[in-house]
Every structure is written in C-alpha cells, then in structure tokens.
Write a structure and sequence with these properties.
single chain, alpha+beta, elongated
Length: 177
C-alpha cells in the first residue's frame, strides 16, 4: 500500500515549501490545507476512512482501494518535523539565523496578519505581523519602536520582553510579503 500514488507527505510538504519560496502563497496554502491531518478528520465518516490520529502527521495517505483515504505510518515519520518547518519557516516566514530572526511571510491575502511569541533563551519577543492592502512595498520591522534596516529581528538574551511590529503592504499578486 505504501507509495501507491497517494499522498507521500514528505514530498507534498517539500512541494508546498517550493511554492512558498516561489512566492505563490495561494498554491502553498492549498497544499498545506490538503495535507493537514486535521482536514482528514472533520466528520465521523472522514475519521472512519482516515483511521489514524488526526493530530499526527501521517507519512502517507493511500489512494488505492480498498484503503483509499487511509493514513499510514504515523508517530515514527519525519513528516511531522517537515510539517513544522513548512508552517514556521515557509508559511509564517520565520527563520532563525544564529542571533537574529529573518522574516519572509507567505500568508494568505485574506489574512490581516498574525501574532506570535518567540522565546530566545530567557527573553520573549512579541511579534505582530500586519498585512495591509496597497501597492507592494518594502516590509518594515520595528523592534521596541526602532526601525530595523533589513528584514531581521536582532536577538539579545537580556531577560526582557520586546515588542516587534512588522508591516507588510501587498497587492493581490503572487509575491511573498
């Protein structure tokens, strides 16, 4: 039953990552929605078909009868780690580079933005990303009201809280924000 033309999750995740890197936010999020295990178990009949935990990433989803739609190889697949990286790095666009965070969000146009709290050792960064419609322009990042020169957040373990305001202006094109 494995690798039968059904969903091979590692490859599906890598495809979503590739679309995000290309700036095709719509396709990246479509693929994420298709492979998200929660979306395989929204009803009792879907749970009965999927047959594995809807909170665990399956390595495969079968496409051959009589097992069509059934998940397989949960708990011991590397797909969960790749899914985490897809969400954090490729879609939300947050990448750790030693002592700074680089931002390149690839979020749906219908989102206003998102908030997250990032802990760096004993220091917490409260990050708010706001997506604004308009002509595509440069992303602006302010850390504690100080404008940053590039798309990064400098990290310092000073045991304080820091507030990060990220503003992106986007048109309805495909590009990353």
């Amino acid at each position: 039953m494995r690798e039968n033309g059904g969903q091979y999750t590692h490859a599906a995740i890598w495809a979503a990552m590739a679309f995000a890197r290309l700036g095709d936010r719509q396709r990246a999020w479509e693929l994420f929605t298709l492979i998200n295990p929660v979306n395989h178990a929204r009803s009792a009949s879907e749970v009965d078909t999927y047959k594995v935990e809807p909170y665990v990433v399956a390595a495969d989803v079968y496409a051959v009868a009589p097992h069509m739609g059934r998940g397989g190889w949960t708990w011991y697949t590397g797909s969960a780690a790749w899914m985490y990286r897809l969400i954090i790095e490729s879609l939300l666009g947050l990448t750790l580079e030693v002592d700074k965070l680089r931002l390149a969000p690839c979020i749906p146009l219908e989102w206003d933005g998102f908030k997250l709290h990032y802990r760096y050792r004993e220091t917490v960064y409260h990050i708010s990303v706001l997506q604004q419609p308009g002509n595509e322009g440069p992303m602006t990042i302010r850390v504690d009201d100080k404008v940053q020169k590039d798309n990064t957040i400098p990290l310092c373990d000073d045991h304080k809280e820091h507030w990060v305001d990220v503003r992106v202006t986007t048109s309805h094109g495909k590009g990353n924000i």
